[in-house]
């Protein structure tokens, strides 16, 4: 796949898009199948590179993975291999989510330290401390997390310093087979975490409190396969909402759940967007230049860090000044430097980006540093004067299926070169 997007700015995005399954759920659903022997079918699977990487990882562990359309069937053996190789894990952060299931199911795991998005250090201390609280030993050796629980896991009370999505998922997928009860306090509330928890319950786990800050897991002896439909990708759905706002367009988004976008919709409405619910989704219209809006990113239900580049792109061409505060990933402002090359007037001070809205950006070559930054740059290119080239667009393919094609269907002048 060529990895550059060429965008000629101008024109509003008009029409309808369909959103598929959530990247940040499906990868964990696939990892969680390691917890039981047998065959699972996961549907509404997005066609993204990360799903291929997770499929390869599971295959290396002895699973059989087959794709039919937007469903994935996974057959898990009696004893999966417990080692996740570096060449795959380095490409994708979510590989770390095989850690909990492997320790719970086979009593040990060797998972290479993950790579993935360059949005700041991606520590694993909360994952490791959580597994240790359940009675595992876990340490980092030669670039691998090596975790062992030869005598099984025991339920415990775990208080997360930060409501980490990944740590909540790893602890939850380990605790389901522990002896006794586990309580996770300050747990992540993201819909993706709820989706994984509901899948585990369908497999016979006993989890309550999903979507709240306190998740209780009663350990069970054994789990069984289950089928599951991945929840809609709220970040992609939210991205289309900002695309409509930035281009003063009118987009109907199908296959999405507007309830997962409450705060982003509040921000878009104060920017002047008209948002109405539609059958199986919602519609976003913007009939004049956006007003600038301040925002601080926070764990769910706060404004998601994954939509931060999109609201910055909107504020960069909005009427007025705004402050965007990034509280989740400190490295996420790298995107701002690239946006500056398109003429955005943004000043970064620590966790804060002060933005002065300009009336017109001008096209230039820029580089995508992660999935969401890449998408943000494409959206900015849609309203920049002339040609914008977004390089390293492979980042976008990792998390956003068919982005260029969908943009063209909405009237944008975008092509891969
Ligand atoms: C998940 O990452 C998502 N990735 C991210 O989406 C998303 O931005 C993030 O959650 C927050 O919603 C996947 O689900 C694959 P965290 P994750 O653990 O689990 C700190 C995208 O573009 N932390 O909630 O890694 C960490 O440094 C990606 O789709 C620790 O300090 O996020 C960060 O500051 C980008 N110690 C904060 O918590 C730990 O052990 C949030 O991280 C773990 C995390």
Question: What would you note in describing this structure?
Answer:
With 417 residues, the chain is an alpha/beta fold. The chain has 2 domains: 5-19 and 232-416, Enolpyruvate transferase domain (UDP-n-acetylglucosamine1-carboxyvinyl-transferase, Chain, Alpha-beta prism), CATH 3.65.10; 23-229, UDP-n-acetylglucosamine1-carboxyvinyl-transferase, Chain, CATH 3.65.10. The chain is 31% helix and 26% strand. The protein contains 14 helices and 26 strands. The strands form 7 sheets. It has a 4-stranded mixed β-sheet with strand order 23-25-1-26. A 4-stranded mixed β-sheet has the order 2-15-17-16. The chain has a 4-stranded mixed β-sheet with strand order 4-5-3-14, covered by helices on one side. A hairpin with a 2-residue loop joins strand 16 (274-278) and strand 17 (281-285). Helix 1 runs parallel beside helix 2 and helix 11 packs parallel to helix 12. The longest helix is centred in the middle third of the chain and has 13 residues, at 234-246. The chain starts with a strand and ends with a strand. The model has no long low-confidence stretch (mean pLDDT 95). The structure holds ligand EPZ. Ligand EPZ binds next to helix 1, helix 5, helix 6 and helix 12.
